[in-house]
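Newbie here. four chains, one complex. Structure please?
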Amino acid sequence: MIQEECGVMGAYDFDGKDVATDLYHGLYSIQHRGQESCGIVTNEYVRLNAVKGAGLVNEVFNKENLATLKGNIGVGHVRYGATDINEAVPPIVSRYCKGTMTLAMNGFIKNYDELRIELEQRGAIFQSSSHAEMIMNMIAVARTKTHSAEEAVLTAIKRLEGAYSIVVMSPRKLIAVRDPYGFRPLSVGKRGNRYFFSSETAAFDVIRAERLFDVKPGELIKIDDGGVTHFADAVGKIKPAPCIFEYVYFARPDSYLDDGTSVYRTRVAIGKELYKACPAEADMVVGVPDSGLHFALGYSYASGIPYGVGLVKNSYVGRTFIRDTDEIRYEAVSIKLNALRGAVEGKTIVLVDDSIVRGTTSANLIKLIKDGGAKAVHMRIASPPFLWRCKYGTDIPDREHLIAARMSCEEIRAHVGADSLGYLPVDAFDRAGVKVSEHCTACFTGKYPDEQ
Amino acid sequence: MIQEECGVMGAYDFDGKDVATDLYHGLYSIQHRGQESCGIVTNEYVRLNAVKGAGLVNEVFNKENLATLKGNIGVGHVRYGATDINEAVPPIVSRYCKGTMTLAMNGFIKNYDELRIELEQRGAIFQSSSHAEMIMNMIAVARTKTHSAEEAVLTAIKRLEGAYSIVVMSPRKLIAVRDPYGFRPLSVGKRGNRYFFSSETAAFDVIRAERLFDVKPGELIKIDDGGVTHFADAVGKIKPAPCIFEYVYFARPDSYLDDGTSVYRTRVAIGKELYKACPAEADMVVGVPDSGLHFALGYSYASGIPYGVGLVKNSYVGRTFIRDTDEIRYEAVSIKLNALRGAVEGKTIVLVDDSIVRGTTSANLIKLIKDGGAKAVHMRIASPPFLWRCKYGTDIPDREHLIAARMSCEEIRAHVGADSLGYLPVDAFDRAGVKVSEHCTACFTGKYPDEQ
Amino acid sequence: MIQEECGVMGAYDFDGKDVATDLYHGLYSIQHRGQESCGIVTNEYVRLNAVKGAGLVNEVFNKENLATLKGNIGVGHVRYGATDINEAVPPIVSRYCKGTMTLAMNGFIKNYDELRIELEQRGAIFQSSSHAEMIMNMIAVARTKTHSAEEAVLTAIKRLEGAYSIVVMSPRKLIAVRDPYGFRPLSVGKRGNRYFFSSETAAFDVIRAERLFDVKPGELIKIDDGGVTHFADAVGKIKPAPCIFEYVYFARPDSYLDDGTSVYRTRVAIGKELYKACPAEADMVVGVPDSGLHFALGYSYASGIPYGVGLVKNSYVGRTFIRDTDEIRYEAVSIKLNALRGAVEGKTIVLVDDSIVRGTTSANLIKLIKDGGAKAVHMRIASPPFLWRCKYGTDIPDREHLIAARMSCEEIRAHVGADSLGYLPVDAFDRAGVKVSEHCTACFTGKYPDEQ
Amino acid sequence: MIQEECGVMGAYDFDGKDVATDLYHGLYSIQHRGQESCGIVTNEYVRLNAVKGAGLVNEVFNKENLATLKGNIGVGHVRYGATDINEAVPPIVSRYCKGTMTLAMNGFIKNYDELRIELEQRGAIFQSSSHAEMIMNMIAVARTKTHSAEEAVLTAIKRLEGAYSIVVMSPRKLIAVRDPYGFRPLSVGKRGNRYFFSSETAAFDVIRAERLFDVKPGELIKIDDGGVTHFADAVGKIKPAPCIFEYVYFARPDSYLDDGTSVYRTRVAIGKELYKACPAEADMVVGVPDSGLHFALGYSYASGIPYGVGLVKNSYVGRTFIRDTDEIRYEAVSIKLNALRGAVEGKTIVLVDDSIVRGTTSANLIKLIKDGGAKAVHMRIASPPFLWRCKYGTDIPDREHLIAARMSCEEIRAHVGADSLGYLPVDAFDRAGVKVSEHCTACFTGKYPDEQ
C-alpha cells in the first residue's frame, strides 16, 4: 500500500480561546495521512503544552491529557514512519534564540544531506533524521540575523529543494508555507475569529469551519495579532505542480484540492474517462473499497453498467497478524475484504481499483471474486501504470518493486488473473479536469517537475 | 445503535489437527456481533487451553497466545455487555461430574430467573448473571442422570424458554443446538475433515470452508469420533421464527441465513420494495454507511435514480470520545461520517437507512447532508417502524426510548428534519423473499412468536 | 523460596461507613503473603462492589477504582498461585439462594477431591480449582436447609479436613472461622465502631486498630447488627496446632501470633537458642535480609559477637529477569543482594538464615561473602532441617527437592561451601517460648497434627 | 527525600563482544540514583542501538529488547526528573559532523543559561532543557575545529562551570571526564578485556568486575583501540571537593568513594563519632531503614547500647497513593515503615537517621515508635544541620523548606517530638576519616567550593 507521510494542522484564535479541541477532532479527519504517531502542541501565552505519542488519535489522546492543552495557538500532526532513537514524535518543539518554535511538516527535502552537512560543519547536532529538525536548525540560524520570524522562515526555506508544506508556531505567530511547486496540499479555513491550516479541507467540515483558500505554491501566510498576512511568491521560482496522486488515492473524497476542486467529483470524472478509454461489457461494476468506489461509480455512470457492491470490508480488523496452518495459507486481504457471492455469482464483473503497485493485492482480490462465483473479472485501474518512485514525501516503493516497471500490461493481466486489464491513459486526467501540465505526474511519467 | 449480544463458533477436526487458527480468523468475520470481549477455548486430549479477554479480536490474541491453543476441538466467542464481578469472559469453562464442559451461547433465556432460583434451591452458586452459566448448571444436573452429554444437553434445554444458539464442547464431543424458533442463526461449514459451527456463514469464507446447512430450529447436532449426528426435532414444539432483523441490520451482507438466503440479495430486494412502497423524485440515492448501502442500491435499481456516495466514513475512529467547546457542540456522528459536499451539493437526495431507533443519528445525518448543500433530503427506512423491544437477546432499548413508539411518522419526519419520510411496510418483506409468517417480526409487530 | 498461599482481611463498620480504604491500606501489610493477585469486595446495602486483578496492591488499586468501593462490610485478599482458565481472582463472589456470598480463604482442604466429587454428583459445576469455590458450594447446599448463614457455614466446614482461615461476607453479616487446629493465623482488631479480621496483626497497626484477640482454632465469629458473636468450639475436635513456620519465616516481625506472642521477640529468642545449640567463634554475626536479621540479632546478643550488616539488599529489583553472557553466568541473588566487602573483608562471619530449602541460595550467598573477602563463613539456620512437605496451604516443594531430605548435615555444609553448619534443634523452640507440642511442626518432624 | 539526579555507566570491550547485558545488570545497582527513566545505547560498528523509556530498569528492559542491544561500546543511564516536551530520555544520542555521539551525565552546569544563549546566538536549537543536550552542542561546535573527539570534549568542558561526571561515546571511542572538583563520583572497573565506567563501584560487584580507580577530578579518560589513555589535569584548575553527602546518604554502603574509601566503614565511623559528640543513655539503638542502619551500628559499637531493629520496612510498596478517610489521616510513612512494638515497648530508644530535611518524616517516625510503646526517643542525626541548597546536581529543596534553616535545634526537637536531638558536628567527618577540607560540605556550611 502506498502511504502519505504526514498530515498537519494549525490553529490560531484571535479571541485568545483554546484551540486544542478543534485540532483533536480535526486530526481524526486526516488520520489516513499518518497512523503511527500523532501530537498536538499549544501555545499558552508563550508557555508550550504538548501531548504526543505513538498510535492513532484515539489512542494517544484522552479527556485528561486533552484538557491540559491550553492555548490559543496550536499545531497538530499525524505521521507515518518508524521513529528515531530519540523518539521525537512530531510536532517537533525547540527553543532557540527567540524563544520557542514548533514545526510540523509534510514533504521531503531533496537536498537534506547537503544542508545537514552544512549545518553540522557549523557545529549543529541532530537528534533524529527528521527533515523537520533540520529545517528548524536552518530557521534558527537565519533567526540570528533577523528580528522577524517569518523572514527567518523565508530565508531558511529558500535553501530547501523538494516538497514541503510546513506549519510553524512561534510564541506569537502561526506561519504556514508551501514549496513553489505546491507538491503537498495545505489549505486555510475559518470559523468565527479562529483560523485553521490543514493538509486537507475535510478537517474543516468536522470542526465546522469554512474552507477559505489554499496556501498557494510558494506562498507564506502569517497569522498574528496584526491579522492574516499573505506573502505571495515568497519563495520565488513558482511553478505549480501539486501531486496528482492526491486525486487518485491520498486525499479524502470530501476534500477539495487546488483551491476548490472536489476530489469526489474528480474521481467520478476519472471513472467516466476510464470507461471511455477502456470499455468493457459486464453485468456489474465493483469498486475496491474504499478508494476504488468513486471511480467505479463514474465507470457505471458512463457505461450504464449497474454499480454493485461486490466486496465487503471488515471494519474491525485494525492492526492484526495472520497465521498460516498446514492446511491453508491465510492472506491478510481475505480478512479485510470478502467477496459478496450473492452479488457476483454468475456475473461478469468490472473491478475498479485506484492503482496497482506490486500486484499481489489485485491478484488476491480477483481470486476472491472468482472464488465467489464471478464468470469473468475485467480489471480497470483509475490511474496510469505506476513506473517511478516519488521524490516528494510519499512512501512509494523503489522501481524494482513496481510491477508496471517490470512487466507489460498483458503480463500484469496474466499475473493478477484478470480477464482483461485497462489503465487510465495519462491524458485522461486532462479530460477529467485535472491538468496534467499543472500537476506532478512523476510517478507515471518520470517527469520530476523540479528537475525539468 | 442496536447491537447483537454475541457471536459463537465451534470447530472439530477429525484428523486431530489444531483448530484455533481457523477460529481466530473466523472470529474476525463475526466481530460485529460482539466487540467488548472475546475468547477461544480448545480441547487438547481432554486438557483445555484458553485465551480470553476484554477487547477486540486483534487486541486479545497475539502470535504467542494463539500458539498455546493446541487441540482439535474448539469453541470461540465474541461478546457485548459489561462483565460481572468475577469477570468470566466467555466461552465459559467448567468442570463437572463428567470432566470439562465449555459453552458459548447467543440468545436470551426468558425463564432465567425461575430456573436459577430452582437451581439455587438445590444449592447451586452463581458467579455471574450469565445465562450460559445457568445453562451449564442445568446440563450438569441433567448429566448426573445420564451417560450421554447430548442427552444431558437435551434434558437441560427442554426447560429453556427464549432464544438460544449454543455450542457446547465436552472432552470428546462438539454439540450445537438451536431453540425451536431458531431465533438466532447458527450454521455448519466444512473444509476437508474439519467441521465448523458459526453464527454467520461469512466466517466460512475467510477460512475457506464450504457452507453446508444450518443447524435447524429445534435441532441438536453432535460431532464426535462417530461422525456428525443430527437430532432433528430434538427440542420439540418446533415453530421456526428466525429474527427478521438479521436481514435488516445484524448479519453481514456476505452471510446466508435460513439455509441459503443471501443477505445481500435480500437487502437489494428490500431496497427495491422500499422504492415501490415509498417512491421519491430525486437526483441521487445515498445509503448510510455501511448498513444502508445495499438498500440504497436496490432503491436505485428500482427507481432508476442514480446511486451515489454522499457520506464518507472515517475508518480510524474506533473507541473515541468527543469534547465540546464553548463555541461548538461536537456530535460523535460527525467524526465518524462526513457529508460529501461534492456529491450532494444542489441535489435532492434520497437517504436510505436500515432503521430509526432514537432518531438522534438520523437528525444529525440529515443536518450534515443539508449543511453539505443538499436541496432536499427524503429519508427512506428499510424496515417498518421500530415499536417493541426484543426479548431474544439483542440490545434494543425499552419502548420509551423508541421514537416510533412515541411519535407519528409525520412527527418523526419533522423531528429528524427530513423533507419526507417513508418506512418499509411489513408485508414488503414477503415480496422481498422473506416470509413474515416464518420469521420473528416482534420488534415491528409486537407478535412474540413464543407468546402466541 | 517458600511462600504462603494467601492473606485475607475483613471489615465491618457498625456506623455504616465505608471500609474499603482501611482494607486497601491493610492489604499492603500482608502483601508478603500473596503477590500475584489481590482484590477487595464491599457490600453497599446488599449491592456488591469489587476491584480485583493480577498484580501487587499498588498495581491493582488506584484512586478511581478505590472510590467505587462503597459499603460498610468488606473482604480483602492477596494471593499467590497461577489463575485458572476462568481467571476468578479472589475474593470469590457468588449469588446463591440467599443472596450474595463473598469468600476469602487461606489454607488447603485435604479432602477437596472427595467433596468436589460429591458436589459434582449433585450436579454442581466448578469454574476453577479454587478450594474457596468448592467451600462456597458446600455452604450453598447447606444454606438450602437453614435460615442462618452462620449455621450453613458451620455445616459446610464440619465436612472440611485440612487448614482453613476463612472470611465470609453475606448481605448483612461478616463471618470468620478457623479450622480446629488453627493452622493458619486469623486475628481480630477494632478501631472505634469498626471491626477487622486479618491474617496478621501487623495490618492493624497501619490502620490504627487495636489488636483484640485471635479467632481461636475451631471458633466461628459472626458480626452483624446484633454485635459480635463468638461460637467457640464451633467445629468440634479442637486441637490447636498453629504453623510454627509462621514464627520462622512467614509472619512479619511486627505481627503477634497465638493471641499475643510477638514474632520479633520470638525470633530474637530463637537466635539466642541457636547460639546456645550451635556456638561459633567469629568476628561478626550477619543475617540474611530480611528474614535472617532478627535471628542474627539474637545470636549476637547471646554470643557477644558484634552484629553487623554484611549483605546489602537492592530494593528496586521487583519482577526481573537475568541474562547470562558468554563471559559470566548471572545469579538472581547477586542482583538482589551484594556482599558488603567493607564489613566482611578479613573477618570470620556467622551467617544466619531462617532455613535451607534447596541449598542453591545459601551456596550463592556464601560465595558472595567469601568473594567479598571473608576468612570463613559459619552458617547457622534458625530452624531444624526441612524434611517434609506442608499439607496445609504453604508452597513448600516436594521431598525430592528438599536438600535436607537427601543429604546429611555435613554433606549440606560441603554443598553450600560453609566452614561449619548448624541447625536449630526442634526442642529449642520450646526454650524460645513456642511450645512444640502446641504447634504444627510437620515440616521438620513429619508429625501431621490431623493424622496423629 | 533528597534525591540524586542521575547514575551513569559506560562499557568498552576490547574483544568486540556485546556489553549491553553487563550494563543492564549494573544499572540495577545504581537504580537508587534515578528511578524515573533509564536507557542503554550501544555502538555496533558505528550503528547505534538503543532501548530507553520511563520507568525502572525492570520495567524498561525485557529479554527481547535487551537482545537488540548489540555492540561492544555502550552507555547506560538512570535518571530522576520530569521529562521535557520532546521526551528525550537519556542517554541522549545525536549525529553531528563526525558521526554519532551519545552522552550521559550526572551533574549540574551553573553557567548553563549563559552557554545556551551563546549557542542560540550561533543558531543552535534546543529540544529540551537537558544540560547534556547543551554540552553535546558545545562538543559539536568544538569538533568542527579538531580531528579528535577527546580534544573537542576538552574544549567544550573547559567552558563548563559546576558539577559534571560525563560519559561520551563516539563511533570508536568511549570517553569519561569529571569536573575539576570531582563533585559527583565516577569510577573505572575491569573484567578481562572489558572496561567499565560507573557512578558507583557497587555496579562492578554484580558484573564481577574489579574496581580499578576513580576518574580523578579534572581528568579525562579515553578508551579506544589504542587502549586506555589518561589525560590527567585535562580541565585545569583542579581542586578536589567531592560531595560529602555521598557518604551520608546517596551512595550505596557497598560502594567505594575517593579512590577506595568504603562507604560502609565510613558510615560506621560516623555513627561512632555521633555517639561521642551526642551521647545518650538508652536501651536500644535503632536506625531508620535503610540509610540510618549503619550509623546506628556505629553508635551501638561506640556506646555499648544494644543495636536493635525497631522499624520494619514494607518492601512491596513501590509507587503508591494514600487515601484519607473521615476517621483517620493516613501517612505514607506508616505504610512504608511500622514500629516493632515487640522491640521498642517500654524502652528508651536512640533513633538514628542520616539527616532531617523538612522534619515531617522524623515527626511521623517518632510518633510511630512512641505509639509502639517506647518510653523515650532520642534522635541522633548522622550529619550536620542541612542549611543550604545544593548547586551541583542533587535535588535538595530551597532554603525555605529546610527546617534547620528556619528553626533552632531545640525548636526542631520540639517539632519532631523527640526527647533529645543531636546532630553530627561538621568536624566529626574529619575524625571519621573524611577530610572536610577535601570535600564539598556546602549543604552544611554554605561554602561552595567553586565560589571561594
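Moderator note: Chains D and B do not touch (no CB pair under 8 Å). The first strand of chain D starts at residue 3 and ends at 4. Thread marked as resolved.
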